[in-house]
Amino acid sequence: MKNYPLLDVRVSTPTLELRSATDELLDQLADVVRAGKTHADPAPYDDPMSFYETDPDLRVAKWLRAIWRRRGTVEPDAWRLYFVVMIDGRPVGEQTMTGVNFSTLGTVTTFSWLSADQRGHGLGHEMRAAILHLAFDGLGAKEASSDAFVDNHGSNAISRGLGYEPNGSEWATRQGEPALLNRWRLTRDDWEQRRRDDIQLHNIEACHALLPLS
To answer: Which ranges carry the N-acetyltransferase domain (predicted)?
Structure first.
């Protein structure tokens, strides 16, 4: 999209590609959302979350509206980049990164989900490694954080495997019920010890031109 180059930012690894979430790609990924392949047991999302909507069409509509609303908000205290996870040209999930007072603190948080039929093959780890490369190598982040419910063993294992350190816990609600979250923290120094040379960044100059990074 020549008039909004943030939608041309990409991150590629030997296994997958993160492509900026254009409406065309979201329209394709909506089939996964409509089919309920975002679900997991135990439920991994805190409230509010569109994926808990039982009506498939309303679920897609709420999901899209949330992305459109947040994708268009670019402020010094918070901005968010949305990516569609692509495997062999097929959309299979979503990976986001939010800058939190980035110009002052240099911190980001991440969120992701993967289609149920693609789990268990290491893609969650690869998605997170890709977005962290964008954060630290591409944008100069100082620190990344993540959280996951204590019973979300997959997400917690990914954080641990990528070098995050435990950073306390907090309560949230999940479908209206209280549930405990693990918080994780990854510093730039710890990321540098594990940084990879096979992840490529594309068109990231748009981030420097259009995001409040400094």
So the answer is: 16-187
